[in-house]
Specification:
By secondary structure, this protein is α/β, with parallel strands linked by helices. The chain has two domains: about 200 residues, Class I glutamine amidotransferase (GATase) domain (Rossmann fold, 3-Layer(aba) Sandwich); about 100 residues, Orthogonal Bundle (Arc Repressor Mutant, subunit A), CATH 1.10.10.60. Helices cover about 45% and strands about 15% of the residues. It contains 14 helices and eleven strands. It has a seven-stranded mixed β-sheet, sandwiched between helices.
């Protein structure tokens, strides 16, 4: 049997806490139906008997205080809502306990942007972490020593599990069930809760917004120029010339502030434009690709698949009207 502690963090998403509790306790029911013993003992633990969530909209009643738990096999860190730096501060009293438990062999399961709290414990130092695509830039700015992963939905290393994407935590729970028990039980949970087990990447869901939370006027102007003229045949040399800087210097500066090389930024902007057309329009894929400045359809398909994990046709089938 494994003892699981779901943390009742301040600002935790109530649906996330409840889903974890329901799925893991339901696994016990599946086992009992098969004539087997329960596997999970699930506790919801906090700093006091009740914790207010979502600015007082919900109140959760805990089943234990964290300081009364001397050992637990698994800690689940739920999604937290609101301003991340403030949320980390409000939950600072949990940090030492989580560190101590991990040091004694406890597994840590972090759900989506619960990774902000996990990173604040220092346990992700120089480790991989999957982060929701919309929070990636803010996470990287707060925790530059953490290796952010965006090409996989789940990371698993040294007893720490993370996932990117809001409801992808359901996939992480299935992953944990399979690891603790077996594939058969994970598949059964997938069927009973109707969770798609095939998801492995955030890429199809990402909306490229660029990284503009900086004060470099030249880089911002280059970003805006690319976004306003994406349908043209843009070159790195022309972008650098407009900025009035040498290519090597400006490329280094651009990548440091945006997280993308100039070529990558141009590609991502073009891909985003194509995605919108595929979602809403009736033009052929070839027409759309030519309109964003590509003459080589196959080359664009490779770029599109690298960014989204799907071919343009697969993307249209998935998201088109």
């Amino acid at each position: 049997m494994k003892h699981v502690t779901i943390l009742a963090l301040h600002d935790a998403a109530i649906n996330c806490v409840d889903s974890c509790f329901q799925i893991l306790t339901r696994v016990n029911d599946f086992l009992r139906y098969q004539g087997k013993a329960s596997f999970y003992e699930v506790t919801i633990a906090g700093l006091q008997k009740t914790t207010s969530l979502n600015n007082g909209l919900y109140t959760i009643h805990t089943t234990a205080g964290i300081h009364g738990i001397a050992h637990t096999d698994v800690i689940v860190i739920p999604i937290t809502c609101g301003h991340f730096p403030e949320s980390v501060k409000r939950n600072a009293q949990f940090i030492d306990w989580v560190r101590a438990m991990y040091k004694n062999g406890t597994e840590i399961v972090s759900l989506c942007v619960g990774s902000f709290f996990l990173a604040a414990t220092g346990l992700l130092h120089h480790k991989e972490c999957a982060v929701h695509w919309a929070a990636r830039n803010e996470f990287s700015a707060m925790f530059p020593d953490v290796r952010v992963i965006d090409d996989r939905l789940i990371t698993d290393a040294d007893g720490i599990y993370t996932c990117g994407g809001a409801y992808s935590y359901l996939n992480l729970l299935l992953y944990i069930i399979e690891k603790h028990l077996n594939r058969e039980m994970a598949v059964l949970a997938s069927k009973m809760f109707e969770i798609d087990m095939d998801r492995s990447s955030q890429h199809p869901f990402v909306i490229f917004l660029g990284q503009k939370h900086h004060a470099d006027k030249n880089v911002l102007e280059a970003q805006q120029y690319i976004e306003q003229h994406y349908e043209q045949k843009l070159t790195v040399e022309a972008i650098c010339a407009k900025a009035g800087m040498g290519r090597r210097t400006f490329e280094r500066r651009f990548k440091k502030l945006t997280g993308n090389s100039i070529v990558e930024y141009i590609q991502r902007v073009k891909v985003e434009a194509v995605k919108k057309q595929l979602e809403q329009g009736r033009k052929t894929i070839n027409e759309i690709v030519y309109e964003v400045g590509y003459n080589d359809i196959n080359a664009f398909r490779d770029v599109f698949k690298r960014c989204t994990g799907l071919s343009p046709l697969e993307y249209r089938r998935k998201f088109g009207v």
